[in-house]
Predict the 3D structure of the following.
Amino acid sequence: MINKFMNLPLQKKLMTFFITAAVIPLVLVGIFTYQKSKEIVKEQVSAQVMEGLIQINKNLSFFQQDIEQLSSFIYSNELVQETLHHSSNRSDIQKYNDFQKMDELFQTLTESKSWDVNIYVIGLNGDRYFTGDYLPHQYDQFMENWGIFRKAKDENGSMTWETRYTIRQVDNRDVVLSAGRVIKDRQTDQPLGYLIIDIPETTIAKIYQSEENQYATQKYLLDAKGYVISSYPNKTTVGLKLDHPSLDTITSNQRGYLNTTLDKAPSIAVYDTGEASEYKIVSFIPEQEVVGGSRLIGYIALTIGLIGLIIAAWVSFFLSKALTKPIDGLIGSMREVRKGNMQARFQYPYKDEFNDLGLSFNHMVKRVDGLIKESVERKTLLKDAELKSLRAQLNPHFLFNTLETISFVSKMNGIKIISQMAYSLGEMLRSSINKEKEFVPLEEEINLLNHYLFIQKIRFEDKIHVVLDVSVNMKHLLVPVLMIQPLVENAISHGLEMKEGKGRPRYIDR
């Protein structure tokens, strides 16, 4: 992957870099904006739901106070006190009359209330008065050390509350909460019986259903131990302990909200505890509904990101084009030079690194062009020199061959002197042509000198007499080419030509 990227043209590399550099911040900002907006929406929704839960708890407190006021009224009512004082052995007519009076009292009390409850007055004298359709068996044959009766007895006349626990699904009409107290004689403070007020699940549900919000929430009313008193809309857990991993956090704090799950779906749990009771109202809001508003922000962020990506691609294209244009121009100039156009130059109007690079390139091309021209000139001169050398060699060879011919013709015609002169001159020409060696044996130089002296003797006749005295042991020594003959020639030219009489050059080498 890296190799493929590195093999891309420079413009595409720059575009990829610029787009990546622009997209990464956009993506990070978009993600941050979406997450932050989601948290803000969660907080706002949780705060809104919390206000509703606080109001529900206030309504529940009002309801509890109303129940306590109702129980206090029944507790202190003269008819109730008097009826419970009656003997269990009174006549059936008296019992019927007492029942009619108590029934009228119950009707008066329940008609003034908007909620539905069941009232039971259980007399120690055996009387049983109630507002429902039937008298539950546990109230008819009650046990003072069981359930609500035990709690009421322990409170000694004060109001007490009890949650009804169950292991089966609760019907809407089933009782989920009970309030009870001992009815005592106001004069002697002796117990006369028990007052039990049963509250069905529908009555509790109406209280918090009145505070509905726009979200499809699941509400639970819990007691201090975490048992479900009422729930809406799903009522399968009523009477059972709420099986949820956040239960400990909810029961140990007064109010708050937290991120959790419900039925494996991400949710927000908002809870509040009543001030006058230990009951908690818990509302689970599906996160999918909560973040619906933040999705709009996410879509806006995504749209902005796409627009930013388009702008980044457009800007990246022109920036990369602007940066690679001088490079393309320089490459074009190099190609022209490679084709042989040494007049190609790189032109750049700005004073930056590309300008420095272009100036260096132009200087290099100019220098290379000069070196090429210089090399061509040198080659031309060298060829001329070789040609001249060839011509210079051609003339001596021609002369040498001509002298050979003269020597041969003279010899054939019996003119020995001319033959010998031609031979000596030819040997001298041969020595002048063979200049490959810088050093030759002394013997070769002596031979060349003898040929030269032979010609000079014929010219000067008896005027010149040469004596050579060279040791045999020195003839093999190496001496520079044409070192001796020029010396003897200078001696003859400057010593004998202007001299009258005979001369005697002598060369001694010991």
